[in-house]
C-alpha cells in the first residue's frame, strides 16, 4: 500500500485532459534561415495572454526534433517599437499588410527573417473551488488540516500568419482542463494539475508540425 | 547555540509586529522601466524640450478606503527617461532646456513642454478584477522657437497587468505603469504629426 502511494500521487497530479484542434487554411513550410515570432494578444480589457505562456511555447518549439528558430517576444516587440504594442498591434492580416508598407517595419522584419507570426490568445481560469483548510501555529508547533480542490481550464488559440503572403494560414486551438487537490494532514500536500503546462506542450508540438508543413 | 522556546517565540512576535507595522505604512513605488526608441521616420526639426518641476517630481498618492495613504507612486524620473528615449528618434535634433525662456534663446524650430494632468490607479481589491490598471492623462504643448503657440493637446495612456501569485502589489503597479508609459510613447510617436495644429504647422514650413 505504501509503495502505491507515490504512484497515486503522480496519477492524481497528472490528471489533466487536453484537446487540440487544427484548422488549416494554407500551405506551410519553413527554411532553415527563416524564423517565427510568437506574440501574445493583450488588447482585451479583462485578460491578457501571459508572457510566461508565450515563452513556454517558444522554448518548446526551439527544442527537440524539427526545432524551429523562434524570436523571443520581448526582443521582437522592443525592436519593432511602437508597432506591436497592445494598442497598435495588427489584429487582422490586412492590418499587417498596411504595417508592412512602412519601410522601417518591412526592413526590421527582413532583418529578423520572420516567415510566420503566431498570435497566441487565451488564458487559464480557475473555478469550482471547494473545501477548507485551517492552519494553526502554537508554542508546541504548527499544522494544517482540511481538504481543498479546484479546477483549472486553459483555453488558447494560435493564429498563424504567413508574413510572405500576408495570409492567415491556420488556427490551432487547445483546451486543457484539470482538477487539483490540496489535502492537509499536518502538512499540506499539493496535487496540482499542470493544466497550462500541458496546454503549452501540446500546442507547441502541434504548432511545430503545422509550421513545418507536416 | 542554545535557543529556548521563549526566545524563539519572542523573535517570532517581533517579526510579526514589524511586518504588521510595515503593512500599515504607505508603500513607495518608484516606477522603473526601460523604453525602446521608436522606429519612426525622423521629422527634420530641431526641438527643445522643457521638463518642468511638476513633471520631474510627479508622484501620485492612492488612498485606501479608510482614507489612509496606501501607495505613493513616483513616476517623474521615468517620464523624463521615456521622453529622452522617444524624442531623439522622432526629431533631427533634441536639446533639453531648464525653462521656456532658456529654450527660446536656443534658436530651435519648436519647443515641447509635456505635463501630466491626471494619474489614476485601479487596484484589484477595489475593482474586483484580476488586473492592476493605470491611466495617465497628459497635456502636451508645442510652441515655436520664439514662444508662439503651435498646439496644445491631450493624450491618454493606459496600462494593465494581471494579478499573479508571488508578485507584490508594488511590482504589479510598476509593470502596469511601464505599460502605460510605453502606450504613451507609441501613441505620441505615431500620432504627433497627425495632431491637426501640428500638421498645419508642419505643412506651412
SSE map:
The complex is a heterodimer of chains A (214) and B (205).
Chain A: H1 4-13, E1 16-24, E2 35-40, H2 51-61, E3 70-71, H3 73-79, H4 93-100, H5 103-112, E4 114-138, E5 141-162, E6 167-188, H6 195-211
Parallel strand pairs in A: 2-3, 2-4
Antiparallel strand pairs in A: 1-6, 4-5, 5-6
Helix pairs in contact in A: 2-6
Chain B: H1 5-24, E1 27-30, E2 43-50, H2 53-56, E3 59-63, E4 69-74, H3 76-90, E5 91-97, H4 100-104, E6 110-122, H5 124-127, E7 131-144, E8 149-162, H6 169-191, H7 196-204
Parallel strand pairs in B: 1-4, 2-5, 2-6
Antiparallel strand pairs in B: 3-4, 6-7, 7-8
Q: What's the short version?
A:
The complex is a heterodimer of chains A (214) and B (205). Chain A has 6 helices and 6 strands, in the order αββαβαααβββα.
Distance between the termini of chain B: 81 Å
Spans where pLDDT lies below 50 across 5 or more residues of chain B: none
Helix content of chain B: 25-40%
Strand content of chain B: 25-35%
**Per CATH, what is the topology of chain A?**
Double Stranded RNA Binding Domain
- As laid out across the biggest beta sheet of chain B, the strand order is 5-2-6-7-8
Please, how many helices of chain B? Answer: 7
Rg of chain B, alpha carbons: 22 Å
Major sheet of chain A:
6 strands, mixed
Beta content of chain A: 35-45%
pLDDT averaged residue by residue of chain B: 90
Query: Got a strand count of chain A?
Result: 6
Named CATH architecture of chain A: 2-Layer Sandwich
What is the C-level CATH assignment of chain B? Answer: Alpha Beta
Placed side by side, the strands forming the largest sheet of chain A appear as: 1-6-5-4-2-3
Number of strands of chain B: 8
Which two protein chains have the largest interface (Cβ within 8 Å of the partner's Cβ), and how many residues from each?
A-B, 18 and 23 residues
CATH superfamily descriptor of chain B: ABC-type transport auxiliary lipoprotein component
Counting DSSP H or I runs of 4 or more residues, the number of helices of chain A is 6
Amino acid at each position: 500500500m505504501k509503495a502505491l502511494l507515490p504512484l497515486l500521487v503522480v496519477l492524481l497530479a497528472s490528471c489533466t485532459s487536453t484537446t487540440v484542434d487544427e484548422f488549416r487554411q494554407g500551405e506551410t513550410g519553413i527554411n532553415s534561415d527563416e524564423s517565427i515570432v510568437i506574440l501574445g494578444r493583450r488588447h482585451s480589457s479583462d485578460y491578457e495572454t501571459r508572457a510566461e505562456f508565450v515563452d513556454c511555447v517558444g522554448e518548446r518549439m526551439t527544442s527537440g526534433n524539427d526545432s524551429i528558430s523562434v524570436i523571443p517576444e520581448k526582443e521582437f516587440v522592443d525592436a519593432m517599437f511602437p508597432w506591436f504594442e497592445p494598442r497598435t498591434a495588427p489584429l487582422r492580416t490586412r492590418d499587417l499588410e498596411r504595417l508592412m508598407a512602412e519601410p522601417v517595419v518591412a526592413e526590421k522584419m527582413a532583418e529578423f527573417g520572420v516567415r510566420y507570426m503566431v498570435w497566441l490568445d487565451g488564458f487559464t481560469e480557475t473555478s469550482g473551488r471547494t473545501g477548507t483548510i485551517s492552519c494553526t501555529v502554537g508554542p508546541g508547533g504548527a499544522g494544517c488540516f482540511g481538504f481543498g480542490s479546484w479546477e483549472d481550464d486553459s483555453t488558447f488559440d494560435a493564429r498563424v500568419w504567413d508574413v510572405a503572403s500576408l495570409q492567415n494560414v491556420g488556427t490551432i486551438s487547445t483546451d486543457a482542463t484539470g482538477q487539483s487537490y490540496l489535502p492537509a494532514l499536518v502538512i499540506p500536500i499539493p496535487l496540482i494539475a499542470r493544466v497550462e503546462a500541458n496546454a503549452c506542450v501540446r500546442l507547441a508540438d502541434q504548432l511545430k508540425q503545422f509550421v513545418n508543413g507536416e | 547555540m542554545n535557543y529556548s522556546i521563549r526566545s524563539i517565540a519572542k523573535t517570532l512576535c517581533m517579526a510579526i509586529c514589524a511586518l504588521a507595522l510595515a503593512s500599515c505604512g504607505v508603500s513607495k513605488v518608484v516606477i522603473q522601466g526601460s523604453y525602446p526608441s521608436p522606429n519612426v521616420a525622423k521629422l527634420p526639426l530641431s526641438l527643445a524640450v522643457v521638463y518642468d518641476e511638476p513633471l520631474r517630481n510627479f508622484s501620485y498618492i492612492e488612498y485606501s478606503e479608510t482614507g489612509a495613504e496606501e501607495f505613493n507612486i513616483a513616476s517623474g524620473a521615468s517620464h523624463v527617461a521615456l521622453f529622452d528615449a522617444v524624442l531623439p528618434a522622432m526629431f533631427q535634433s533634441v536639446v533639453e532646456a531648464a525653462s521656456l525662456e532658456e529654450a527660446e534663446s536656443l534658436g530651435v524650430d519648436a519647443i515641447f513642454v509635456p505635463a501630466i494632468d491626471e494619474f489614476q490607479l485601479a487596484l484589484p481589491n477595489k475593482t474586483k478584477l484580476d488586473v492592476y490598471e493605470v491611466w495617465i492623462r497628459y497635456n502636451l504643448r508645442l510652441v515655436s522657437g520664439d514662444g508662439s503657440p503651435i498646439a496644445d493637446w491631450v493624450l491618454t495612456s493606459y496600462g494593465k497587468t494581471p494579478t499573479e501569485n508571488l508578485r507584490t502589489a508594488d511590482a504589479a503597479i510598476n509593470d502596469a505603469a511601464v505599460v502605460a508609459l510605453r502606450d504613451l510613447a507609441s501613441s505620441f510617436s505615431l500620432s504627433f504629426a497627425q495632431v491637426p495644429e501640428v500638421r498645419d504647422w508642419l505643412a506651412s514650413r
